[in-house]
Design a protein that fits this description.
Blueprint lengths: L8 E2 L7 E2 L9 H9 L5 H21 L5 E5 L11 H9 L12 E9 L5 E9 L2 E12 L5 E8 L15 H13 L14 E6 L7 E10 L9 E7 L4 E7 L6 H4 L11 E10 L5 E10 L6 E2 L1 E2 L4 E5 H7 L14 H19 L12 E5 L13 E6 L2 E5 L10 H17 L6 H23 L7 E2 L11 E2 L29 H4 L5 H12 L4 H14 L6 H14 L6 H11 L14 E7 L11 E7 L9 E3 L7 E7 L1 E11 L2 E9 L2 E6 L9 E5 L4 E3 L8
Parallel strand pairs: 6-8, 16-17, 17-19, 22-30
Antiparallel strand pairs: 1-4, 2-4, 3-7, 4-5, 5-6, 6-7, 8-9, 9-10, 10-11, 12-13, 13-14, 15-16, 18-19, 20-21, 22-25, 23-24, 23-26, 26-27, 26-29, 27-28
């Protein structure tokens, strides 16, 4: 079976936003005030004021919507053929209330993506007047016979309009606020993404304070984990800095699309470097990689004129906006960089063989940033997809870890670009971020097995790095690496309202195991690797930027049936049932063998609670690693963790990025913070967790 995507067609300029047929534009609140007050007099004034109060109340109710509402339709739902943009919009509007929208929902066409099998994916974004609803989108799926056969959505209902002219600050002022905020943090070098700042409605979190109109300002991602290329900073209409979350690309992706990769691929001569490289374990390997040679200086560089790949210095590109290609020098090319380059080319070729050209499917030039470091020239021990920058799709590698020897790691990062492209963006927190990480693990591992003919029976990620480095995760046995096997299992991380490194952006690297385990169980059901890859690529095509686990529970079986693999639907549904991804609320009954611990700091909550972790360790002498890590869920100050029944010691810690900066002791006066570098050391506290029970830790002080 042919594996997947034909050419991508991005709608030039996007079609104009169109309201639903039944909608009527609500007058902006400020305009209501001015037009009504002109004739106010005596008793009429009281009536008009009451009307204005009601208008404001309606507006406030609109802002109190708890979050985006996800929707899914997995059947033919529209009688007319879908043969153009207008027909696609009409089809979506015909079921808008069924999938969480209403008469206020306004959509614009973002892109059209046809596939080799004849299926076409139409992507719409939600707007409120001229304002983007951050993460609001609809994917319409049309089959080869032009029938609307599926729809996946994340929408904000009951959107009211505000007069944007009444905002207190401009885009430039919002950008300055963000840069000033970043300047207050140590070791931060924030760079604006020019032309990407936009006004948006941000329906993030479970609290009314998280649903508001705001400026969205994009910078480079200076979070320690560097898992995404950018940070989206939110500044409210009055100039108050709210928070930041990692994102794969700015929602205003067109602002970057105009950049062209400035590198003379066509002016240099193509050649091949052949030689032997040494892996970290001493194993020798012969490789042949393409290089480019300057005909005048005869200087050879690590670059590929056909695939449009160049290896360059990370710091020069990220910090100085310069491309400094890796050249041969006197001692040949760097051994580790040759391995990374060779592995990346093999991954590039594999995806091209299944119909996906280059990391974004469009053949965009690629830059591999070597020697990834921070602003202080300290090594960042990670591999990362760096987003699109200056016309290149970029990837980053450090000088310590042997990431280049692992097809699954290189393909993991490659897949981040694939899913960013198919989804148009990703809100990298909570379920959406965990699913993003899971998709990269799944397709990375499948790529490794299909390229290297390594069946990887343990389904490990990064196992080739060897003892002392990898592996990092097990898709077969999540508990082996402190990940949950089902929702609210031990190690499960609850959703958060504010993304930080301390809370792993809501468990994106923790809860990814739920999707990973589903993938492993499909393999155990006998599904061939080629079919698995085809299935997961089609899942990527159907997802929205806000797809969560409950939506995936509906989407996955539908994609399986659409792909023609009906014999695996039962196994898939059983895996979904086992992982409980359709369940989001904490269960009334804790599963047998597990207990739950909660801590509420409502009475004496310190500042920056989102940067704190409650860490549990078993009292058994052999237990060194944390048994559980809790953080404040949603927008509350309640810490909650599920763990195996047993006895634990626990500590409350504060972090800045990944750096421990403070610890707390529970005293008769409550939780008191101590300085890590000071003389006062935090006291350890113990708790016994029984099977099926929830233990509430004291928040206001020890009993006398």
């Amino acid at each position: 079976m042919a594996l997947l995507v034909a050419a991508l067609f991005i709608v030039a300029g996007c079609s104009s936003p169109q309201p639903s047929p039944s909608s009527e534009t609500t007058p902006p609140a400020s305009e209501d005030t001015s037009s009504a007050s002109a004739d106010v007099d005596g008793e009429d004034a009281s009536e008009t004021t009451s009307e204005l109060d009601e208008t404001q109340a309606e507006y406030e109710r609109a802002l109190s919507a708890s979050a985006l509402v996800t929707g899914f339709i997995g059947e033919k739902f529209y009688d007319k053929p879908i043969e153009n943009d207008d027909a696609a919009l009409d089809a979506v509007q015909s079921v808008i209330e069924r999938v969480g929208g209403d008469e206020t929902t306004v959509l614009e066409l973002r892109e059209i993506r046809p596939t080799e099998t004849g299926t076409t994916y139409y992507t719409f974004r939600q707007r409120a007047g001229d304002v983007l609803v951050h993460g609001g989108s609809v994917k319409l799926v049309v089959d080869k016979d032009h029938n609307a056969c599926g729809l996946v959505s994340a929408l904000l209902p009951d959107v009211q309009l505000e007069d944007l002219g009444s905002w207190e600050i401009s885009a430039e002022e919002a950008e300055k606020i963000v840069l000033d905020e970043c300047a207050d943090s140590d070791n931060v070098r924030a760079t604006l993404v020019k032309g990407a700042t936009e006004q948006a409605l941000i329906p993030l979190g479970d609290d009314t304070q998280q649903v508001r109109y705001a400026w969205v300002v994009y910078t480079n991602n200076y979070f320690a984990d560097v898992d995404t290329a950018y940070l989206a900073h939110y500044v409210d209409a009055d100039g108050g800095y709210l928070y930041a979350i990692p994102v794969n690309v700015p929602n205003n992706a067109d602002a970057l699309a105009g950049d062209e990769a400035n590198f003379p691929f066509g002016e240099l001569e193509k050649a091949t470097w052949s030689g032997t490289v040494t892996k970290h374990n001493g194993t020798k390997m012969d490789i042949n990689v393409p290089i480019l040679v300057d005909p005048e200086t005869e200087e050879a560089i690590l670059a590929d004129g056909d695939r449009k790949i160049v290896c360059a210095d990370y710091a020069d590109f990220w910090f100085n906006e310069q491309i400094s290609p890796r050249n041969e020098g006197e001692d040949s090319f760097n051994n580790d960089e040759l391995i990374i380059y060779d592995t990346f080319i093999k991954v590039w070729d594999f995806f091209e063989s299944i119909g996906w050209t280059g990391p974004d499917g469009e053949g965009t030039p690629t830059l591999l940033g070597m020697d990834m470091v921070d602003e202080n020239d300290e090594v960042i021990q990670n591999a990362a997809y760096g987003g699109r920058r200056y016309g290149f799709q970029t990837f980053c590698f450090n000088r310590i870890d042997p990431d280049g020897e692992c097809f699954d790691i290189i393909a993991h990062e490659f897949t981040h670009c694939v899913t960013t492209t198919t989804m148009t963006s990703n809100l990298y927190l909570n379920d959406a971020g965990a699913i993003n990480e899971g998709m990269s693990d799944i397709m990375g591992n499948l790529t490794e097995m299909m390229i290297a003919y390594d069946q990887d029976g343990e389904w490990l990620i990064g196992e080739n790095e060897g003892e002392g480095v990898g592996p990092y995760r097990s898709m077969k046995d999540p508990h082996a690496f402190n990940q949950p096997a089902f929702t609210w299992d031990a190690y499960y991380g609850p959703a958060v309202g504010e993304a930080t490194t301390a809370n792993d952006c809501g468990g994106v690297h923790v809860n990814s195991s739920l999707l990973n385990l589903i993938s492993y169980k499909l393999d155990q059901a006998g599904m061939p690797l080629t079919d698995q890859m085809y299935f997961w690529m089609n899942v990527a095509l159907a997802m929205t930027p806000f797809t969560d686990y409950p939506q995936m529970a509906e989407l996955l079986p539908w994609c399986m049936e659409q792909a023609g693999y009906t014999e695996y639907v039962d196994a898939l549904k059983k895996a979904i049932e086992d992982t409980r991804i359709a369940e989001t609320e904490k269960p009334d009954k804790i599963p047998e063998g597990l207990g739950c611990v909660t801590l509420s700091l409502s009475e004496n909550a310190p500042d920056n609670i989102s940067e704190m972790r409650l860490v549990f360790k078993s009292t058994e002498a052999s237990a060194d690693a944390p048994a559980a890590i809790a953080w404040a869920g949603g927008n509350s100050d309640v810490f909650m963790a599920t763990m195996a029944a047993g006895d634990y010691v626990f500590e409350l810690k504060r972090f800045e990025g990944e750096n421990l900066v403070g610890e707390f002791s529970l005293t008769k006066d409550g939780w008191v913070e101590t300085n890590v570098e000071g003389d006062a050391q935090p006291s350890l506290h113990t708790v016994s967790v029984a099977s099926g029970e929830t233990v509430t830790l004291p928040s206001d002080g020890l009993a006398a």
